[in-house]
Amino acid sequence: MANPIKIIGAPLSQNVRKPLAVAHHLGLEFESVMAAPGDDTIKAANASGRIPAMDDNGFRLCESNAIMIYLAGKAGNALYPDEPQARALVNQWLFWDVAHWTPAYQPIQFERAIKPMLNMGEPDEAAVEAAMIRFQREAGLLNAALDGKVWLVGDGPTLADFAVGAGLTYAAGMGIRLGDYPNINAWNERVMALDGFKKTAPGS
Ligand SMILES: N[C@@H](CCC(=O)N[C@@H](CS)C(=O)NCC(=O)O)C(=O)O
């Protein structure tokens, strides 16, 4: 008999939150396995030592967005449309997330949210200031793309919303005023109200 899929990594990480939230949303049977970056549990599943990783009965996968796609496929692609153009648009957001969005918010998240959480010293505000310029550009694009829309692609939530939305997990701690981006603000409330996000909120 097959064992539940293991999603490996510290749930406090927004990258780990992505597949956890998707697994909850899809009602998949899974096990959340705690592992910090670089420790032996994660290295056994992902040579890079980065979290998250997944182990489905010996099939190992890393990269949060690739794991989400795999999970969606297992559950019949409810969050990953089969129609080619809709899927292409979801993919566009998944690539944007990795190439532009995550690199824009992550330095701010690290300095202002992660460092205090892990007692790693004072935030480097010069680094935050530099990162803010990049963040504002990407957030401006996201805000414009959400104009008149409820979800990023189509009429319901997709992996695009899970990938991009997870990036705002620590928005308040990062000192990001979402009110400056009204469309992001309204969409973020919808994303965070999804069951998968409620069940994976830090501290839940
Ligand atoms: N692109 C990867 C990024 C994974 C990643 O960098 N995870 C962080 C934690 S959020 C990590 O493990 N950092 C430790 C390291 O880079 O060695 C993904 O989406 O899964």
Summarize this structure briefly.
With 204 residues, the chain is an alpha+beta fold. It is 55% helix and 8% strand.
* Alpha carbon gap, first and last residue: 31 Å
Specify the helix fraction band. 40-55%
DSSP summary: helix tally: 9
Q: Give the oligomeric state.
A: single chain
Hetero compounds: glutathione
CATH architecture of the largest domain: Up-down Bundle
Structure description:
- The protein is of the alpha+beta class and 204 residues long.
- It folds into two domains: 5-74, Glutaredoxin; 84-198, Glutathione S-transferase Yfyf (Class Pi), Chain A, domain 2 (Up-down Bundle), CATH 1.20.1050.10.
- It has helices at 14-26, 40-45, 64-74, 84-117, 125-145, 159-166, 171-174, 182-192, 195-198; strands at 5-8, 30-33, 53-56, 59-62.
- It has a four-stranded mixed beta sheet with strand order 2-1-3-4.
- A hairpin with a 2-residue loop joins β3 (53-56) and β4 (59-62).
- The protein is globular.
- The mean pLDDT is 97.
- The structure holds glutathione.
- Residues 13, 15, 37-38, 49-52, 63-65, 98 line the site of glutathione.
List the helices and strands and how they pair.
Blueprint: E1 5-8, H1 14-26, E2 30-33, H2 40-45, E3 53-56, E4 59-62, H3 64-74, H4 84-117, H5 125-145, H6 159-166, H7 171-174, H8 182-192, H9 195-198
Parallel strand pairs: 1-2
Antiparallel strand pairs: 1-3, 3-4
Helix pairs in contact: 1-3, 1-6, 4-5, 4-6
Glutathione binds at residues 13, 15, 37-38, 49-52, 63-65, 98.
Name its key features.
204 residues; alpha+beta; Glutaredoxin; Glutathione S-transferase Yfyf (Class Pi), Chain A, domain 2; four-stranded mixed β-sheet; 4 strands; 8% strand; globular; binds glutathione
